[in-house]
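Example record used in the benchmark description.
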Amino acid sequence: MQKPSNLLLKLSRRIFEDIESREKFVEALINPKPFHPCILWCGEKPQDSPFDTEFPIDWQPDFIDRLSLTTKPGKHPLHEQGYFYCLDFSSVFAASSLLTISPQRTSQPVNTIFDMCAAPGGKSIFAWKLLQPSLLISNEVIGKRLGMLISNFKRCNINPHLIVNRDPSVFGENISLSSNLVIVDAPCSGQSLLAKGDKAPGCFHPTIISKNANRQKRILANSAKIVAPQGYLSYTTCTYSPEENERVCEWLLKKFPQFRAIEINHLQAYQSQLTNIPCYRMFPQSGLGAGAFTILFQNTEEKAVQPINMEILSSFTKVIGGATCK
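Model output (structure tokens):
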């Protein structure tokens, strides 16, 4: 039987007050169990699903299905034909904060979406499906990850979209106050990979955590600059350490006081106990997914929304899909 590291035990004591929760959390990481596969229907959901589905969670979007444990949706012909996108249910949890700004719940349109760390594309596709923007801009700074992003968008017929490949600072300088929603699914220490049975060397080491937290702050600072007045900023991670989650959010609110964190009513049961800010965590011992952190900020400024300079944006663009870029 695998023994937990001292750093994992230390983290468990910081996250949970009660011993039972600590033990279940640690057990979920050192002896991982499979989670139900999950799919996002990119087009219209078929009336009769070709898969055995689980009963939906009360906040689960109707275009998401959790499937039986033995299902392998990626091998189904409909996957290759682009009918659906495979993702972890933790990603659904994280992206579900966007339900708060869906057309069914608010009259404020989300015309332009900018996904700052987009590959392989799950959060972009979720936002596109839910909000149906006039333009989806998906950025991936790591060149070797671009191919997967481009392939997924093409296969799933995600239009209109632009795929760009630049450091976040470029956008903070050139298209400020322009996007109704900016998504930051931030690079992190990846501690939840352990709950999937994968390896994440050094993921609990303070140096790695600190390095990631500093990178997250830099990405968020540049992302905040391009959020339009009254627009939204979504921040998510797939890690557990408070330094990469709650502490980063507290930092953002101090640096950008025009932002406020939005309460997500359907996620109240998942409220983080490590801060008073409305932000939400899923842990692997829930049995739903490997784990995620999510928060939704709003830019409360009353300034005018700045139109995107498409000429500048076109110089950053790698792929145009169904969008006009002149």
